[in-house]
Amino acid sequence: MADDFITLQEAADEFGVNRVKVWRWIKGGRLVAHQSGRDLREKLVRRSDVEELLKPTPLSIGEAKKVAA
Fold first, then answer.
1. Residue 20: pLDDT over 80
2. Which has the higher per-residue pLDDT, 66 or 56?
3. Who's near 49: CB < 8 A, 6+ residues apart?
4. What SS3 state is found at 35?
5. Distance CA 46, CA 68 (A)
6. Average confidence (pLDDT) over 32-49
7. Is the CB of residue 11 less than 8 Å from the CB of residue 45?
8. Long-range contacts made by residues 22-29, C-beta under 8 angstroms, separation at least 24?
9. Can you give the pTM of this predicted structure?
10. By C-alpha distance, which of 58, 3, 66 is closest to 36?
11. How many domains would you assign to the chain?
12. Under a CB-based contact definition with an 8 Å cutoff, are residues 62 and 53 in contact?
């Protein structure tokens, strides 16, 4: 099965943020950008990587109190 790739704009729409934020996540190592085979200017990310970042992560009790404060 081939990897399913989406554009940075599509990823930004999935997260509800702008493309600049997606680029920051790429530079920070949270997402990996790939070169498009059709357009050398177009960058893509794996849909599965985006879905993984969208999954909720459990917090410990101490972390939950910090977030609530």
1. yes
2. 56
3. 31, 32
4. strand
5. 32
6. 93
7. yes
8. 25/53
9. 0.71
10. 3
11. 1
12. no
Euclidean distance between CA atoms 65 and 55, whole angstroms: 20
Q: What is the mean pLDDT of residues 45-68?
A: 79
- What is the rounded CA–CA span in Å between residue 64 and residue 18? 27
Largest CA distance in the chain: 48
Query: What is d(CA 42, CA 49) in angstroms, rounded to the nearest whole number?
Result: 18
Residue numbers of the domain that contains 25:
5-68
**Helical H segments across 1-69, by residue range:** 8-15, 19-27, 47-54, 61-68
12's torsion region: left (phi>0), alpha (psi -120 to 50) or beta? alpha
Amino acid at 10: E
CA separation for the pair 46, 60 (Å, rounded): 29
